[in-house]
Amino acid sequence: MNGGGASLSVPVLTALVAGAVIAGIPLLLAALGEMVSERAGVLNIGLEGMMLTGAFTGFAATLHWGSPWAGFAAAAAAGLAFGAVMALLCVGLNLDQVVVGIALLVLAQGATSVLHRAEYGASYPRLDAVPGLEIPLIAKVPVIGAALFSQPLVVYLAIALAAAVGWLLRATSLGLELKAAGEEPEALDAAGVSVVATRVFGVLVAGTCAGLGGGFLSIVAAGVFVPFMTNGTGFIAIVIAMLSRGRPLWVVILALGFGIALSLATALQLVGVSVPIDLLNALPFVAVLVALFLFGRGKALPGALGRPFVRGART
Amino acid sequence: MSAATATKAAVQPPAVDGARRGVARAVAGVALALGVGGLLLLVLGADPLAFYVQVFDRGLFTWSGLQDVVVRMAPLLLIASGLVVAFRAGLWNIGGDGQFLVAAALVAGVAPSLAGTMPRALYLVVLLVLAAAAGAVWALVPALLKARYALNEVVTSLMMAFVGINFANLLVKGPFRSAKTLVPQTDVVGLDWMLPRLFGSRVHAGFVLAVLCAALVGVVLRETSFGLRLRVLGESPRAAAHAGLATGRLVVAAFMLSGALIGLGAGVEVLGVWGYVRADWNPAFGLPLFALVFLSRLRVAALVPLVAFYAVLSMGGHYAARRAGLPDDVVLMLVGVVLVTLTIAGVSFRGGVRS
User: Does the beta-carbon distance from B327 to A113 stay under 8 Å?
Assistant: First the structure.
């Protein structure tokens, strides 16, 4: 553990911050979607499955068409399709959200792994690195410039999406309806707004965002698809959504915070500090527990979260 | 005996009717799953009929395959029983994999040094108690956070699961690492110091223990006041508090009992099948079982056949996948399909998440 001075060197800090952004964006995208879905009263435990589906589809499309934009479009479309299935089962048929979420997650894990083995199992292709977009002037600032303002365009778009979702939830009637669908679906129904349509919208947003997050993971962060590559990020995203409770700014802060925890391993290796990898891998989850303990106490989730809406049923 | 059954049936016609309907729905769900799964297999270039024949032929109709299925059922039944206890109390213990792996790593790490120092029966009891205690302690964190601070256990138990998976690895690569192998794993326990096998088969005593525990959980939940209190808590925490139940203590008790049964499942799997634990070993029984327990509507009588079917599908499926030249994860895909179709067939019950 010696060499404390070297540990704060510019390249290490740059790698840490840049790594945090790259690791944080998939969390940010997925958590944004989950937040909208939870607002509307649908807990999407299968978020990780949507991410995996987006990761695989995005990877395959980028490889096929040679453009990361095609990849992102495909990842979003795959997530949207996955969300449509989830919406059909959970909102349309009112099936249990947790069981459906887990079932679809297991299905997605199996299907993407099998498809990957069948399509790429022999060649293990890699994608070209997605070029960064240097923002004039500030990209030259040490550490922050290289780490924050030389990222691929998608990174900035993801953060813009967070702002857009914040506007949607706070300033539009749709945002209010989403909240009502999650808190008091009966009241929304009485007001003449379709609870089903509102919730379906929430689930579709979650699917699309999670698909995009998964696409970012394979196209930008890793450059490859590996079976089970989400490795728990979908679940962390659910936690971030729960902690943020409708405030996208918190989604951004928490996602980047967990991004730091996730990228700490690489940064520490650069410094030459040897900490057992399993200890580092456990860190983000310990951090969630601590964050929950400190900030999450007594904070309620949407009142009707996880509860199917049946018109006229007793509550 | 038959008169008693008849009276019971007469007194409780809805239950019997419900059971019959449940079976019909399960059969419909499985049939639908086989259809959808068959289409997917076709897409992957396999012959679905041959695949299914091999799954059930291997899983049910060969002596070797049947033993594999029964052996696999031992940990599955214990984990499922643990989940039933938690769900009855309305607690979503999603962290089963962590409780399982921490218990497995501890048992596999301690067993080699305990072997030979005491009679085998005592040794087995000590290790199984250790397994149950490890699972219970790992479940204690979400339990206390829920009981004291009303923190959602879906999140906390899940986080503890990820911490547990890594903690188990730390144990196996650190203090429990065998000096004899290149790959990080624990020392291997000799066959003489594993769970005794039954009638010269590969089926070990852990299966009997699992069946007993599952039956016991069913009886305790249905017949005892503890079971009733858990059920009240699960149906309505507010009603439970109004009725003067010590809800905090009930939450902790249910969570620890759940973790203990899951830990016991790990102990039985390590001492019955493997004799050691390798680093990064994670059978990930948790998620599919979680869904199956839901589908059983928390009734042990419905859970046992569902778990048996799952064991046949996974053990037979791995064999069939190898024969068809398909990747192993085809089985995972089929399990996902089965879970979806069983849910659609309406075997599940409806509930909500409470914070």
Answer: yes
pLDDT tens-digit series, residues A129-161: 777 766 666 666 666 666 666 678 888 888 899
Q: pLDDT, tens digit, for every residue of A83-122? A: 999 999 988 888 888 888 989 999 999 999 999 988 887 7
pLDDT at position A297 is 65
Q: Quick check: A94 and B290 CB within 8 A?
A: no
- pLDDT tens, position by position, B207-219: 999 999 999 999 9
What whole-number distance in Å separates Cα of residue A78 and Cα of residue A70?
A: 12
Beta-carbon-side half-sphere exposure of residue B288 (alpha carbons within 13 Å): 27
Helix (H, G, I), strand (E, B) or coil at B326: coil
Map out the domains of chain A as residue ranges. 28-295
Are A102 and B287 a contacting pair at CB < 8 A?
yes
The topology (CATH level 3) of A28-295 is ABC transporter involved in vitamin B12 uptake, BtuC (1.10.3470)
Domain B29-344 has CATH 1.10.3470: yes
How far is Cα B17 from Cα B30, in angstroms, rounded to an integer? 20
A231 touching B, CB under 8 A? no
B303: which 2 tokens? 């859970």
d(CA B264, CA A299): 34
What is the SS3 string spanning A95-113? Answer: CCHHHHHHHHHHHHHHHHH
